[in-house]
Design a protein that fits this description.
The structure is a single chain. By secondary structure, the chain is an alpha+beta fold. Helix content is 30%, strand content 13%. It has 4 helices and 4 strands. The protein is elongated.
Length: 132
């Protein structure tokens, strides 16, 4: 979603995205003309007339679980977004009995939240596990 019109989105898809992603993006692009939704999410800058790049992870209950806001010159990392979605799904499916440490990816070690983990994370997880 951006403040750009549907015509700008069509041009962007036809002349840019379709050259990067076969068939264009596999999801709808929405127009937030006037920045109403961007204002609600705190990403619209009325002085500049632009929306900052915002990414919001909203669970099935409508609760924002994670978000990231970047100024326009910096792009987002789709791989990190997908990793975080997988982590939130794992935590939700486990009903909170599992937590994902920094750098977690599917198949990597999870943590078991609880009083026994407090002050003992270092026994189960080390910083080198955050990297591939």
């Amino acid at each position: 979603m951006s403040i750009d019109s549907m015509f700008v989105h069509k041009m962007w898809n036809d002349h840019e995205l379709s050259k990067m992603v076969k068939g264009g993006v596999p999801f709808p692009m929405l127009s937030d003309a006037g920045g109403k939704i961007g204002t609600l999410y705190g990403v619209y800058d009325p002085d500049a007339g632009v929306e900052n790049r915002g990414r919001f992870l909203i669970d099935p209950d409508g609760i924002i679980q994670g978000f990231e806001v970047l100024t326009p010159p910096v792009g987002r990392n789709v791989s990190e977004t997908l990793r975080q979605i997988q982590a939130y799904q794992l935590v939700r499916e486990s009903k909170g009995t599992q937590a994902t440490p920094s750098g977690w990816k599917p198949g990597k070690k999870v943590l078991k939240p609880g009083i026994d983990l407090v002050g003992n994370v270092w026994k189960d997880w080390t910083t080198d596990m955050a990297f591939d």
